Amino acid sequence: MARIAGVNIPTNKRVVIALQYIHGIGAHNAEEIVKKVGIEDSRRVNQLSDAEVLQIRETIDRDYTVEGDLRREVSMNIKRLMDLACYRGLRHRKGLPVRGQRTHTNARTRKGPAKPIAGKKK
């Protein structure tokens, strides 16, 4: 089992698909990495040599921000917005949608489960 950027890569999948298990690498970046290293698209992870895995690991470390560093960077960006008390920061603080979505209906993912409001008794 290959281990790249602290993540165990599935061995029976194609390299392009397996690289997407790393946080911060999507389809486009995975294809770029495979082209830089010079691996065919049809190759599977268990068919890679140790040298090729090392090349992939070095390429990712050199050119991409992934996993822990990326998570830290994103959380620091959100914290900075919250400290500035700008509109986006306030929305993060309150746990509401940040990018202009409506909240009268919907937005349940961000707001959490519906809280019942006590109605008048008959």
TrEMBL record:
<dbReference type="GO" id="GO:0005829">
    <property type="term" value="C:cytosol"/>
</dbReference>
<dbReference type="InterPro" id="IPR019980">
    <property type="entry name" value="Ribosomal_uS13_bac-type"/>
</dbReference>
<dbReference type="Pfam" id="PF00416">
    <property type="entry name" value="Ribosomal_S13"/>
</dbReference>
<dbReference type="InterPro" id="IPR018269">
    <property type="entry name" value="Ribosomal_uS13_CS"/>
</dbReference>
<dbReference type="GO" id="GO:0015935">
    <property type="term" value="C:small ribosomal subunit"/>
</dbReference>
<dbReference type="GO" id="GO:0019843">
    <property type="term" value="F:rRNA binding"/>
</dbReference>
<protein>
    <recommendedName>
        <fullName>Small ribosomal subunit protein uS13</fullName>
    </recommendedName>
</protein>
<keyword id="KW-0694">RNA-binding</keyword>
<dbReference type="InterPro" id="IPR001892">
    <property type="entry name" value="Ribosomal_uS13"/>
</dbReference>
<dbReference type="GO" id="GO:0006412">
    <property type="term" value="P:translation"/>
</dbReference>
<comment type="function">
    <text>Located at the top of the head of the 30S subunit, it contacts several helices of the 16S rRNA. In the 70S ribosome it contacts the 23S rRNA (bridge B1a) and protein L5 of the 50S subunit (bridge B1b), connecting the 2 subunits; these bridges are implicated in subunit movement. Contacts the tRNAs in the A and P-sites.</text>
</comment>
<dbReference type="GO" id="GO:0003735">
    <property type="term" value="F:structural constituent of ribosome"/>
</dbReference>
<dbReference type="InterPro" id="IPR027437">
    <property type="entry name" value="Rbsml_uS13_C"/>
</dbReference>
<keyword id="KW-0689">Ribosomal protein</keyword>
<dbReference type="GO" id="GO:0000049">
    <property type="term" value="F:tRNA binding"/>
</dbReference>
<dbReference type="InterPro" id="IPR010979">
    <property type="entry name" value="Ribosomal_uS13-like_H2TH"/>
</dbReference>
<comment type="subunit">
    <text>Part of the 30S ribosomal subunit. Forms a loose heterodimer with protein S19. Forms two bridges to the 50S subunit in the 70S ribosome.</text>
</comment>
<keyword id="KW-0687">Ribonucleoprotein</keyword>
<keyword id="KW-0699">rRNA-binding</keyword>
<keyword id="KW-0820">tRNA-binding</keyword>
<comment type="similarity">
    <text>Belongs to the universal ribosomal protein uS13 family.</text>
</comment>
<feature type="region of interest" description="Disordered">
    <location>
        <begin position="95"/>
        <end position="122"/>
    </location>
</feature>
